[in-house]
Design brief:
Fam221a/b; mainly alpha; two-stranded antiparallel ribbon; globular; 6 helices; 3-stranded antiparallel beta sheet; 29% helix
Length: 279
């Protein structure tokens, strides 16, 4: 096993480089800025980035953010979100906001998220993968002539097909107006919709307001700090009984008179008739 050793101050230098890469992203063109260029870049870009950050998500018809896009999230053009234009001096007025790819020769005009099926791209109705289609509008297949444009029947974990979802680019104010989390203002490049560790989970598993489906049962299943074992199990039992009664209320209510008659009959029968003889 190889062992990596660093000179004194080496760990701090690594931390500085990681910080540099998170702030600058792809803007240096692969050549490190000089200290003067780095300070000038931060002076010029950071205020603009903090004020005009764009949040990107893949949203279902129900309004749930099934995927929150981050710097490394792939676009339909197979390039990552951080390789697209994400910083604006002024937020564009037109909607939807287009984030074109900055890779030389890429025809992608706007970032478009496409999900993965495990580790491989999803398939179109023409049976070919997403990366076998053109990134230009229309998204025609390059492997066959029958395809009229990429459209996948892949089903998201939320239960909706992929073609029913939209890649949404919105401002902080637009997101706050919908009651969705925006996190803290950060100086890092191409953060997209990431606001915390929970942003890495799928929408239906998230406990923040970007996942708007039934998470109350997940929260209820967690033990509260002040609960002991008996209190926890009693609360869960009562919640389960309330759910059963709510689902079967007509059936339960119709059986109540019959149960009462059985109890009255049992009270009349002498107790010795209910005993079992043993040898």
């Amino acid at each position: 096993m190889e062992r990596l050793t660093m000179p004194p101050g080496g760990a701090a230098a690594v931390d500085d480089y990681v910080e540099y890469r998170r702030i600058v992203g792809e803007d240096d063109g692969g050549k490190l800025f000089t200290p003067e260029e780095y300070e000038e870049y931060k002076r010029r870009v950071l205020p603009m980035r903090l004020q005009n950050r764009l949040f990107v998500s893949w949203r279902s018809p129900t309004g749930m953010d099934c995927k929150l896009v981050g710097p490394e999230t792939l676009c339909f053009c197979t390039h990552r979100y951080k390789q697209h234009k994400t910083d604006f001096e002024a937020v564009p007025q037109q909607r939807p906001i287009s984030l074109p790819c900055r890779v030389t020769g890429c025809p992608c005009r706007a970032y478009l998220y496409v999900p993965l099926n495990g580790t491989q791209p999803i398939r179109c109705r023409c049976k070919h993968f997403a990366d076998q289609h053109s990134a230009t509008p229309g998204f025609m297949c390059s492997a066959c002539s029958k395809c009229s444009g990429f459209r996948s029947c892949f089903t998201c974990a939320c239960g909706q097909p992929a073609y029913a979802h939209d890649t949404v680019v919105e401002t902080k104010q637009e997101r706050l107006a919908q009651g969705k989390p925006v996190g803290r203002d950060v100086p890092y490049a191409a953060m997209g919709g990431l606001t915390g560790f929970s942003s890495l989970a799928e929408g239906y598993m998230r406990l923040d307001d970007s996942g708007i489906v039934g998470t109350s049962s997940q929260v209820s299943s967690l033990r509260r700090p002040e609960e002991d074992d008996m209190a926890f199990f009693e609360r869960r039992y009562q919640e389960r009984m309330q759910t059963i009664c709510a689902d079967n209320w007509p059936t339960v209510s119709s059986k109540v008179p019959r149960l009462q008659r059985k109890r009255r009959t049992a009270a009349i029968i002498p107790s010795n008739q209910g005993r079992r003889l043993t040898g």
